[in-house]
Amino acid sequence: MAELQLRGVEKTYGNGFKAVHGIDLDVAEGEFMVLVGPSGCAKSTTLRMIAGLETITGGEVRIGEQVVNDLVPGRRGIAMVFQNYALYPHMKVRRNLSFGLKLKRKPKAEIETATDEVSGILEIEQLLDRLPKQLSGGQAQRVALGRALIKHPEVFLFDEPLSNLDAKLRASMRVRITDLHKRLRNEGRPATVVYVTHDQVEAMTMGDRICVMKDGHIMQVADPTTLYERPANDFVAGFIGMPEMNLVGCVLSHDGGTPVLTAGRQRIAVPEGLAGRLSAAEGAVRLGIRPQHLQVVAADEANAFTGTVSNIEFLGHEVNLHVEVEGAQFVVVVPSAELDKKIGRGDQVGLRPLGANIHIFDAESGINLSLPAD
Amino acid sequence: MAAFPDLPKHSGSGERDAPTQLEIKLRRKARFNAALRYTLLTVVGLIMVYPLVWLIGASFKTNAEMFSSPGFWPKNPTIQGYIDGWQTSTPYTFGRFFLNSLWIIIPKTIGTAVSCTLVAYGFARFEFPGKKILFASVIATLLLPNVVTRIPQYLLFRDLGWLNTFLPLWVPSALAGDAFFVFMVIQFLRAIPRDMEEAARVDGANTLQTLVFIVVPMLMPALISVCLFQFMWTMNDFLGPLIYLSSVDKYPVSLALKLSIDTTEAFAWNQILAMSVLALAPSLAVFFLAQKYFIEGISTGGVKG
Ligand SMILES: Nc1ncnc2c1ncn2[C@@H]1O[C@H](COP(=O)(O)OP(=O)(O)O)[C@@H](O)[C@H]1O
Ligand SMILES: [Mg+2]
């Protein structure tokens, strides 16, 4: 097993389109790294450059000690699981699993032991003599996983492996993959993983660390908690979290030492804990508050936004309240039990940030100004 | 069912018992249409197949009966036509001509399959300088009428000293000269996702191994079609052998049939027809053997939700 390093990696496609703009990324040995971002942000391109399926037009990729830029995929010590499984359609499952080892001319006995071991782990023993077309989606994905596992690669690469499965199967496969990762770690052969997904739930639940990407740039690399609590910029803040963080344009000014946010006719003072970090900032900013961090109060209270309820979504244990404030849509998540039953569409309510759980982003660069300086 | 005696009344069965006037009318019309369609198709089908039926029937007639009775059923069925036709008027039997045909067809078909696969794989999967121009020239050959190239080709092969050998018949095909087949395989390959090939590369296969172990098996239906067409077209090819082969011992079946017309003063039609029937047999046999794969298409795709 080995660590993986990307140094200033760039990709310009043959048609001149620059998909990846010089990214740096370190994945430690045995780490589960998730690449996440909206569709088209070059996650697959990045992964395919690591795999060797796409040429690297700038920078360096290292696996272990070795620069692998010019190595063919088969020499990089990687294994890859594809979104469409990419099983060889004319080969039985058994041959699908052993194809890579056969090419390496491993002895027959060794191949058989390895096939047995892997099919045991993934519970596909009874499928070994089937053709891929006789497998369900979940089974096919397990075989694809087995094909990667059997090679004992240095680095596992996954490209949206679960997106073709239904929600229930996806949840169980998620657990299966993370369990497998832990199991390999406990067996003393930790697996370095790069896992691509556009699904933030997968990213948050599976990743040791998460790399958020946008338009071929890395926005932030951090563990799930950090990503959620201290997003580096407004993109990460908006991308991670359900429902999305409320982002609204404000003007930051200093009113006798206390920073104050003004949105239209409404003003709120920046909470105590954050005030100190914002002493230098002024002017147009974006205020970000998670829907879970807003409290419904009476209209026109001090240090709260007042707006009109435009929609109420009842989800069972909680309610999503949509409130229009100065032309911006706010979503508030309120536990069902705490919601005032008299509130209805068109009513005026106040929204107050809970504690210091707000973020202030520079309006231009999107950088989070309210992070502690550490 | 018995527990809910009122249920069946709501189902359609009640109405089915008493079809309305309109329904009867529609049904009658549909039946009439179907009958008309099938009659028409049968008649057209019979017209198309009649010459073949006549050919087979007539091959069992005596030469005297050939033009005296119009029906296809021989009055005194005889296989004399087959026996005499097989002997031919040359020093060789018809068996020799069949072997010649096979000797032309088999290398040509194999060469076509191999070369088309290589060329199509290159065009469909790789980027290389000049690809656009090369592909355009492949398509251009496809559009070029055969006749245009006959004379230059003849001169070329004459200068190479290949006249009266099988080489002019083999070599162009073995060098992917049949643009139609190349094009067909390219189109087929374009419809196959690249994932499997990429998985093979990650598994450590080089380009050739990927081609042989992954691409060729997936291309099988297309390759079988290519071989089938090449087999039938070559079997029936008259002009190619006519131009390049001059000694009778190299003649394929298509030329040998013409030979029996040339050399006999009074045409032994029954012999000619008998040999024509035999000449049809290999193509028909191959077609029916390969039919399953030919029609199968690619149902083995690796993509499944
Ligand atoms: N072969 C290609 N040629 C040109 N542009 C491409 C090619 N493949 C992908 N792209 C572009 O690169 C960008 C990133 O694509 P991709 O890595 O597939 O995104 P993601 O996997 O994050 O959805 C997209 O804008 C896409 O249109
Ligand atoms: Mg992708």
Give a structural overview.
The complex is a heterodimer of chains A (374) and B (305). Chain A is an alpha+beta fold and 374 residues long. Chain A folds into two domains: 4-229, Rossmann fold; 238-362, OB fold (Dihydrolipoamide Acetyltransferase, E2P). Chain A has helices at 43-51, 93-103, 108-121, 137-149, 167-186, 200-206, 224-229, 234-239, 272-275; strands spanning 4-12, 18-27, 32-36, 58-63, 66-67, 78-81, 155-159, 192-197, 209-214, 217-222, 246-255, 258-263, 266-269, 283-289, 294-297, 305-314, 318-325, 328-335, 348-353, 359-362. A six-stranded mixed β-sheet of chain A has the order 6-7-8-3-9-10, with helices on both faces. A five-stranded antiparallel β-sheet of chain A has the order 13-12-11-14-20. In chain A, strands 15-19-16-17-18 form a five-stranded antiparallel β-sheet, with no helix packed on it. In chain A, helix 2 (93-103) packs parallel to helix 4. The longest helix of chain A has 20 residues, at 167-186. Chain A is elongated, with a radius of gyration of 25 Å. The mean pLDDT of chain A is 92. With 305 residues, chain B is mainly α. Chain B has two domains: 21-82; 92-303, MetI-like fold (Orthogonal Bundle). In chain B, helix 4 packs parallel to helix 7 (167-174), helix 4 (94-125) packs antiparallel against helix 10 and helix 9 (195-202) crosses helix 10 (207-236). The longest helix of chain B is centred in the N-terminal third of the chain and has 38 residues, at 21-58. The model of chain B is unreliable at 1-15 and 297-305 (pLDDT under 50). Classes of the chains: A alpha+beta (374), B mainly alpha (305). The structure holds adenosine-5'-diphosphate (ADP) and magnesium ion. Residues 13, 15, 17, 19, 37, 39-45 of chain A line the site of adenosine-5'-diphosphate (ADP).
